[in-house]
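Handoff note, outgoing to incoming analyst
You'll be picking up this chain. Sequence as last confirmed:
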Amino acid sequence: MDDVVLPFQIADTAVRGRVVRLSGAIDGILSAHEFPAAVSELLGEAVALVAMMGASLKFDGKLIFQAQGAGPVPLIVADYTSGGDLRATAKAEDAELPRGARALLGDGSIVMTIDQGADMDRYQGVTPIEGETLADIAAAYFAQSEQIPTIVKLAVGRIQTPGEGEQWRAGGLMAQFVPQEGGERGIASALSGEDSEVWDRARAFIDTVQPDELLDPSISAETLLYRLFHEDGVRVFDASPLRAACSCNADKIAAVLSRYSEDDLQDMVEQGEITVTCEFCRKDYRFSPKGELLAGEESS
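Most recent structure output, in case you need it:
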């Protein structure tokens, strides 16, 4: 089953995690942008990561992942909204690009934002970019910001699907050592004695996961987990659906345009109209030179 995130727990231990499998959702997100392959792969990894993280939210809200750096891809953003909505965007230099998160992002920071709505304060965690891959960077974020032992595996690629042609797919597996409620948090306290052995064993198994196991549509999330943990036992919980969906709409954009002066609006006019393109889904919205939505355009 694709476009889902599946929570799991290894036997009765404190090792919990999630597996994500993305097909149509990630293909829709990446195909809309037409980035170079290296950027699409990095952005796809960010979407898989935010899907696994966002699925753990216990309230209605949004989780926003941002990587900001000094490299040829100075910004990637991916967010998850309660219910499984995913969207993502990036800024990239128009040049031949290397592959790999560190090479693309350069020095910078990771910002994780949890938005619980207008009536609640935002939570934001910020850490330096540390690691060569996005999976390593994410694990370092959790070690520093959340003090939770974490391992992450991510994969993105274009796969030939019978009857559907070549499409983007993404997959990921994230596991954490999460103490029971009331238990002590922190890397040092969590990884001591028997707990350390439990975590080291789980980490060793997860380290064997290959990219093709995360991308192959014939290998389900349940099959992958059984391959890894059948000796210890693994429990899976209800899967949550995921979809590509953007929160942009014409009314929001019209409200922004209404704040501009007539002269500023005139500067935006091209071929007799103002066109605003959503940075996330790449949808175009067309307005008159006065900032009014043109007939035939969708309003929300």
